[in-house]
Write a structure and sequence with these properties.
Elements lengths: L10 H14 L3 E4 L4 H14 L3 E2 L9 E3 L13 E3 L12 E2 L2 H12 L7 E9 L8 E7 L2 H10 L1 E2 L1 H6 L7 E6 L9 E5 L4 E5 L4 H4 L2 H17 L2 E3 L2 E6 L5 E7 L6 H5 L13 E6 L3 E5 L5 E4 L4 E5 L9 H6 L5 E3 L2 E2 L5 E2 L11 E2 L5 E2 L19 E5 L16 E9 L9 E3 L3 H9 L2 E3 L11 E3 L12 H14 L5 E5 L19 H11 L6 E3 L2 E3 L14 H8 L3 H16 L7 H20 L1
Parallel strand pairs: 1-6, 3-19, 4-5, 4-10, 7-9, 9-11, 14-25, 25-29
Antiparallel strand pairs: 2-3, 6-7, 6-8, 10-11, 12-16, 13-14, 13-15, 16-17, 17-25, 18-24, 19-24, 20-21, 22-23, 26-29, 27-28, 30-31
Helix pairs in contact: 2-4, 10-11, 10-15, 14-15
The structure holds guanosine-5'-triphosphate, sulfopyruvate and manganese (II) ion.
Amino acid sequence: MASVKPLTNNKKLIGWVNKCAKLCKPDRILWLDGSEEEKKKLEREAFRTGELTRLNQKKLPGCVLHRTAINDVARTENLTFICTSKKEDAGPTNNWMEPAKAYRKAGAIFKNSMKGRTMYVIPFSMGPVGSPFSKIGVELTDSIYVCLNMRIMTRIGREVLEALEENRDFTKCLHGKADRDINRRLIMHFPEDNAIWSVGSGYGGNVLLGKKCLALRIASHMGYKEGWMAEHMLILGVEEPNGHVEYIAAAFPSACGKTNLAMLIPPEGLVRKGYKIWTVGDDIAWMRIDTDGKLWAINPENGFFGVAPGTNSKSNPNAMKTIEKNTIFTNVLMKPDKTVWWEDGDEPPPPRGIDWKGNPWKPGMQDENGKPIYGAHPNSRFTAPAKQCPSISFRLDDHHGVNISAIIFGGRRAQLAPLVYEAFDWQHGVFVGATMASERTAAQYGKQGEVRRDPMAMLPFCGYNMGNYFRHWLKMGAKMKKPPKIFHVNWFRKDEDGNFLWPGFGENLRIIDWILRRCNGSIEAAETPIGYIPDKKDVDLTGLKLKPRTLDKLLKVDCGDWQAEADSISEFFGKFGKSLPREIKRELNSLKKRLAKCRRKK
Ligand code: GTP
Ligand code: SPV
Ligand code: MN
């Protein structure tokens, strides 16, 4: 192995890097300093090997394309494990493996897997470098794609090493592509060791270890121990004409609209209200209670890893501007002029191109089963610096974060869940979050469209027993002087013909507007067995052509359907046994009583 010059004197760090190198046997170790020259060098190397393709530099300056292996296009939840000494600490919703066995199994795949390759050392900070709420990690990887993504998604390099004093703990993240065989792929989390081992994948959430692995699975466990929360939430600021900004955090499952909501542009009809939206984060929020008894949040990330298909100048103009330069595109279609295209983007399909698999593509192509062949994979993504977003909040770099006034939960449900409802109080809100459900999307392997329970959008990301996670939420609420109000939204309700009832995207501001007015106490709402819903007159529909009957359908709460839902919730809770907090069980019983009463009335 070539002699290495570590950029640090931190003995613990150097010792760990050497240990991992002994296992993986790279030809070379390279410590990343985060500089521009280093980025250029890495890109050149990746162009040479074909790991990256340089795109049209006139039209897309600084942009590159990457295609993953065909069997490696989304997170693999079935290969993701929480490795704690006791099985019950991982809980009923996680895959569990005993740590020693996990190290052994993954170790066997890592062994010698970097021969002929370079091992890159990426020191990174989740959260602004130096903020007391930030956490430091170091990722070792043999993938330049990972290095370049981490460079955008986190703060990396020299300044992070400087912040990592001798005694400070850091998350030890080891990633290796190995041969990207799905049968030799494992994503292992060791919360007790503050370590992550990911091997055999090259896809986003599996390998950008600062993101889901550290900032959610490991961090949620830290938050549980230390009294704070790591959540799968966007953070947005709504500025009122008087300059006052209210901040909202919202948890939707993967590919259910976080990036879109975080970058919202007010629709024509609401312009007179003078709202301006500021994007603080689009995927992850770390929240804690400050000495003022309020909830404060930071976005630990520094970039966006967003879904490409469906992103266009109408649905998300801010995202389109964000990705004009310095962006890594993954699994999209490449046009002959080396620009990019995806389904439901701005342009009609090009007459020809190279699809996400690297094959020649034409519109209308079908596979052997008659299904359309997509140009871009449904889970194709862009990685872009947060600073390039026109609506980015200057609070992104604020060491203290922002004060959260409301929390929104939401799912993708064709039926049942109304456009919006408000929980009666914090405890009921925790129940609403704990019973969230959503249709599965392309962001994870599994049957698409199937409705599954996804509490707080954290089912795949909670790094400990979810029963304790609910308990932690209850405790946090009890500790706050005035906890944020909790809401539930569903932008995805459909009519009998399968069309969305609600226009969504920018129009969602109409619901945010209602939520804010509920928070400042300026309007009343109608009580239903599941929570408060808007009086129709309070949903500002100025400039929107929506039939009054449609709003009725959107807000409808059918007590019979909800009784069936309550039964399905009972079944889900059955999994938790004793770990389910009493308060949550009580909330379910109260809901059932309210629903029975509602049925009797009819
Ligand atoms: P992850 O990055 O996987 O966590 O996803 P996300 O929650 O950030 O989802 P994103 O905003 O990228 O949206 C995913 C898909 O939902 C895209 O195809 C969007 O076009 C679509 N979408 C977002 N908001 C709306 C909405 O209000 N209505 C409808 N109908 N579709 C939406
Ligand atoms: C998600 O699936 O929730 C994502 C994309 O944000 S990934 O980083 O792959 O997890
Ligand atoms: Mn996400």
